[in-house]
Amino acid sequence: MSAALQDVGIISESNVLNVVDRNEIRRGRTKARTTLLSQVIKDYDHDKFGLYFDGRKDRTLSMEDNRRKVIIEEHISLVKEPGSDFIGHVTVNFGRAQIIGNNIYSFFVKR
Question: How far apart are CA 54 and CA 76, in angstroms?
Fold first, then answer.
């Protein structure tokens, strides 16, 4: 990269202000990321809940009318952020949003 900039004439032996170093870019990104994350944590409402779909599915084998049937249930983890305090989990037979929302609502009502 620096050789190409030198060929074009952007940098020279006396003017090295435009030299790009990979580590300098990496350090700049890391610094920007940490300052942004610290600002997000300061501005975060600490009473919010996080809803995580961990992708885990239970496959339960059942017998109905002398036939095997596989029942698939999705897992939804309820976590309080920040700190990742586990509240509970909800299992849902069908993946429609209305059913998932109703199950989560009934979980909090029972609690």
Answer: 7
Within 10 angstroms of residue 100's Cβ, the number of other Cβ atoms is 17
34 dihedral zone (left: phi>0; alpha: psi -120 to 50; beta): alpha
What is the rounded average pLDDT for all residues in the chain?
77
pLDDT band per the 50, 70, 90 thresholds, residue 94: low
Euclidean distance between CA atoms 42 and 101, whole angstroms: 29
pLDDT for 108 equals: 80
Quick one: tokens of 11? 């940098």
Question: Average of pLDDT values for 89-98?
Answer: 74
Closest by CA position to 4, among listed 14, 19, 17: 19
Q: What does the chain look like in DSSP terms, one character per residue?
A: -HHHHHHHTS--SS--TT---HHHHHHHHHHHHHHHHHHHHHH--TT-EEEEEEEEEEEEEEEETTEEEEEEEEEEEEEETTTTEEEEEEEESS--HHHHHHHHHHHHHH-
